[in-house]
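Team,

Forwarding the record for the chain on the shared tracking sheet. I've put the sequence and predicted structure together so nobody has to dig through attachments.
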Amino acid sequence: MKKAEVQIGISYWANVSGNRCEVRIDGERPRGGWDATNLATGKRIVIKSAQRLQGEAGRLGGRAKVTTEGNVTIVENEPATVETIGGETTAAVGVLKKPRKTKAAVAEAGEKKLSCMAAALKVLTESGEPMNAKEMIDAMESKGYWTSPGGKTPHATLYSTILRELARGEESRFIKTERGRFIAAEKQGESR
């Protein structure tokens, strides 16, 4: 936009913190630019250049009444109109939110997935023999307990997690049998 096209009291689209939002120009600044209000958040902002504005926003709430008394500019807005969209009543200026999932919808989506650590413990308990981290990852993926979210070395992550668990001492759920090989602590307790 050009500086001559900007009018006080009009709403424009502008980039604010990387987001496109509607702003209302409240007044002109003495050294150039404009004072404005972000209509999404209600915060006051400064528009330094007309190039930041991307065009006039729709007139959902009507135009503002602007009066100037001396050095003070007074902006009076009409109340926002209310529209019904798809059976829901929303404010015209407000933001539509996605409906929340109910507990029933979450339960229907399926069981809660196991963490990598829980899946490794389950594999070791079922196996009964010592395994290294790569073998555990392969077994977890083949049985469908856990899959890597795209990491390049999930076995290294599992190995370091097990070592941190071993540092807990007696409370550890894993036991190191030999270098790089582990068993489940409850499996070891059964064989004693």
